[in-house]
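Hi W., the 3-methylcatechol complex you wanted:
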Amino acid sequence: MTVKISQTAEIQKFFEEAAGFGNDQGSPRLKQIMLRVLQDSAKIIEDLEITDDEFWTAVDYLNRLGGRGEAGLLVAGLGLEHFLDLLQDAKDEQVGRTGGTPRTIEGPLYVAGAPLAEGEVRMDDGSEDGVATVMFLEGRVLDLDGKPIAGATVDLWHANTKGLYSYFDQSQSEYNLRRRIVTDAEGRYRARSIVPSGYGCDPQGPTQECLDQLGRHGQRPAHIHFFISAPGYRHLTTQINLSGDQYLWDDFAYATRDGLVGEVSFVEDAAAADKRGVSGRFA
Ligand code: MBD
Ligand code: FE
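Structure:
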């Protein structure tokens, strides 16, 4: 049997030192995590016989990933962010905290501080008028007994018809397609916006570069993000993914879940559509 260098007491001691175990400064929690990262990295390097070339390619990759601000995109694409949801679901299940709208990932494109409105708001700045399909979105925030929650904050964000998000896409106006709506007495919120297109990773970016090597695409179905919060309640992070999208169940970020698919119906009469709270094309 060959000796695994990474598993020897000497190497364990060496990484303990590197993780700061020999001093009483800094963060004990970070030391604990870092030790495990170093030990497990060493094990991977040894077990998979990682070459120097592969090692330095990975270091360069991390530099480029951070340089392009795509670390959050990669963890979504590798399913790690979805894994956090599965973990939380399992914990909730264990203590019987079930029911309600399922959670799903936040993704890397939220921006805090969107304009705040009471009850209803228009989310788009009109720059895609005539190009975009007008979307009427409405819903109610209810507790687990089905009782409306007034004064809940519904923080919404979604992409434009090109699948791009304001702030990250500098060509859009500030907070375009990003709003916070405070629910009315019936727990209701209403928005007029535009039907978003699905998001795709930058084909030139480091995340897509990795996905290419895995033989995977970097596309998400059209979707709308939600943060829902109210005093005395747990924060909910979720999305509505739009039915009929080719990537609905082939989402590179694994964010589509049962219960989070929005049936979109298209109508020609916008005024009637608004009353019915469904999507309509403005003539
Ligand atoms: C998105 O718009 C998104 O929602 C996720 C989860 C990942 C990348 C882009
Ligand atoms: Fe998104």
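The chain has two domains: 5-50, 80-280.

W.
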